[in-house]
Amino acid sequence: MKIATYNVNGVNGRLPVLLRWLAETQPDVVCLQELKAPQEKFPEQAILDAGYTAIWHGQKSWNGVAILSRGFEIKEVCRALPGDTEDLHSRYIEAIIEGMVIGCLYLPNGNPAPGPKFDYKLRWFQRLNEHAAMLYAKGIPVILTGDYNVMPTELDVYKPERWVNDALFRPETRQAFKNLVDQGWTDAIRKLYPDQTIYTFWDYFRNAYGRDAGLRIDHFLLSPQVAPRLKAAGVDKQVRGWEKSSDHAPVWIELK
């Protein structure tokens, strides 16, 4: 089974790119972030025509998450991260597919830091950690994937000295991610490529993609029931170079 995550940065504006990538790579399950579309504007028919069923939680102008499946039933569990009924951002959706819980997440950016947006990021991260701990304790197969908006280590960022005050790289953010992983989750990319420079995001400015000045902020965390099945993982970096593409590239894993 091939599972992918992709921050599309606007599902309707990037629809030709998304459909081309789906046709060329044919992942079985896809988690999308930053739909930037209200619920009724999700391109369901185009996704169906591409061979995928979908569940999604849209939001006008920003945010938005979706899970796509090719040939497998999607059983929706929830479409909000527990812990704050007043948080109306569409940043989390969870489903069961083939006996696995798949959580698709779009963690807040948090800039500028310090400030209210950074405080919200850390609160959201704490809620994620609590929810992840609950899922972990069930002893079931779980995948938590999406745009975490965190570079866990200096290996995950081009010229880390330039990012020390950024919300994605501040010590509090990196510690929150470490606390999450330390529950017992496996970072799929780092499991297979412990020392390799791998990026998933390249800014639109200063020819970042051409210079390979990127960040690794899109992650797969696997529960102990899934991690032994991991046989391959990678980044479809070439998609970032396509015309009118997202500033993220799709990331994927293959399970035995």
Automatic annotation (TrEMBL):
It is an enzyme of class 3 (hydrolase). The record marks N149 as: Transition state stabilizer. Its EC number is 3.1.11.2. This is Exodeoxyribonuclease III. Belongs to the DNA repair enzymes AP/ExoA family. The active site is at Y106, D147 (proton donor/acceptor), H248 (proton acceptor). Residues 4-248 form the Endonuclease/exonuclease/phosphatase domain. Probably binds two magnesium or manganese ions per subunit. GO terms for molecular function: DNA binding; double-stranded DNA 3'-5' DNA exonuclease activity; endonuclease activity; metal ion binding. Its cofactor is Mg(2+); Mn(2+). One of its GO terms (biological process) is DNA repair.
